[in-house]
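User: Sequence in, structure out. Go.
Assistant: Echoing your sequence, followed by the structure tokens.
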Amino acid sequence: MAIFDGDIRSVLDIPLWEKVQDQIAALTGTSVICVDVKGVPVTKSSGQTEFCRLIRENPVFRRRCIRCDALAGLEAMRLEQPYIYLCHCGVVDVAIPVMLADRYLGAVLFGQVRIPEGEDDDQVERLVNEISLLNQYESDSERLMALYEKLPKMEYAQIVKVAELIRTLVQYVVDRVMNSYSEEQARRTILSFGEARADRMLDLPQTVEESFDDDIPVPKTSAIYPALTFIRNHLHDSITMKEMAALCHLSPSYFSRLFGREMGENFVSYVNRKKIQLAKDILRDTNKSISQIASELSYQDSSHFINLFKRFEGITPQVYRQYNYR
């Protein structure tokens, strides 16, 4: 009788899955591994390249590898499909989510490949902004660069096919586990998941207790939480998305997409809306001029500030003050 304890090891028979990994790695020329929600490996790495083995020997690089693996698995869960991305070393990897009902348990990762020169790689997103320069931390940098050049190459279309194959295998294994439950066990297991969200199970680089700030509508475990905290405390400053992405150790493109998904609006709109909320307080509580307020909020052009205020509030700052000045 199958027993599910909330761990990915309860779904994947690890010794058997490692044999499957070995076969996939041998057939495709890629590396395959399974990780939990925190990016920590739960299986050996089948077909691991010498380049990645050396990279993970470096403590700084290893932490970045785990972070990439965790974030990629989480993104695959959100997209409900394999997620193809560039790791911090510029290597192509793919995350396939392991799900039981609506519960995210971890991911199967494969890759450690490069896309051939000349092929369009715009569809491969850089996940983090922590680009590891191979000559900074590795004493034998020439050897490492030589190993990087020897990484296997795979066309994007082929990567997609392998991802779908692994996705099918993972789903087959998960379905077998669910089918081994009695009907009542399966019902209780699914109900026990409730509405738990996997993106609140993960904090990088370390796990913390789940909690919220009253004025920040995402948990402290969210990848964009540092940016929201910074914005809250620096509304008088000029705030750029590139800086906030770097603060969160994410690539700008991934940060932008994640921010929009979690906040329900784009980054620029959110920052401007928060600034306008602060401007309303200043208009009510002081007699500072409109141009002075605009300058204090790091708007170079007071006309731009006035237009933004009207866009969010429907009236100009001057009219707002007339009816709300204390």
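User: And one key feature?
Assistant: The chain has three domains: 8-179, 208-264, 268-324.
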